[in-house]
Amino acid sequence: MYLETDALVIKTTKTLNNDLFLTLYSRKAGKIEVVANGAKSSKSQLSACSKPFVYGHFTLNTHNKVTKVISCEIIDSHYRIADQLETLAYGNYFIELCNLATMPNIIDLKHFQLIVEIISLLSNSAKTVGTEQQLDYELLKLAYLIKLSVITGHQANLQYVCTNCASQDQVMYFSVQAGGLICKSCEATQYRGVKLNETYLKLIHYLTLKDVRVIIKTKIHKNYVFHLNQIYEDYILFHNNITEIRSKSFLKSIE
């Protein structure tokens, strides 16, 4: 049986021979593990499409236990991402988090379209590094984290009703563990929380609803972006049982 699908390469794993194991995030099958026979060799027809960030139309043989790549027509290699350390660091972060937060074989067109769009934006931004038109990578990261919380089914409660006790009195703290806003009493006795004002909450709503191409054109104060990035990264890790994002150390090293 054969499957033809558009897919983004989100991970490559070397083997002892010339083969490469690829993790694809695909339109028709969700996250799937495949093998590209002989792809480590530069002479292989599969070599060019077996690199991280490659977006292409893959033909897969699903007949055996291990799905094999038969061919791939590259739509965009996104090679520019590797031209700059900054874009490479953020790119690695995005595809690793996509891999960690995604269950195998679950089709999710919204997530697929989102991660493909983000990688495309990142690739195109590599051409504008050092100019006034440079992409705000931290804002793009925050947009992905917030949208990912919705995609994975862990959208935070942002209503002025305590997530823990349903109280409507002094609901002003955001708790990662509780899954949203909590009251002052619960923050003092049961959960640790971060005090957020209405501006933060409106910003979260905005980033949840708007398309990323609209978001990146919006001017948002860096302090808001910085604090919400810290909160929502912890939020994603906690609610998706992720212990570590390895690419984060690379990202920190270039900041």
TrEMBL record:
Gene3D superfamilies: Nucleic acid-binding proteins, Recombination protein O, C-terminal domain, Recombination protein O, zinc-binding domain. It comes from the Bacteria. Pfam families: RecO_C, RecO_N. Transmembrane segments: none annotated. Keywords: DNA damage, DNA recombination, DNA repair. InterPro entries: ARFGAP/RecO, DNA_rep/recomb_RecO_N, NA-bd_OB-fold, RecO, RecO_C. Residues 1-77 form the DNA replication/recombination mediator RecO N-terminal domain. NCBIfam families: reco. Involved in DNA repair and RecF pathway recombination. This is DNA repair protein RecO. It comes from Fusibacter bizertensis.
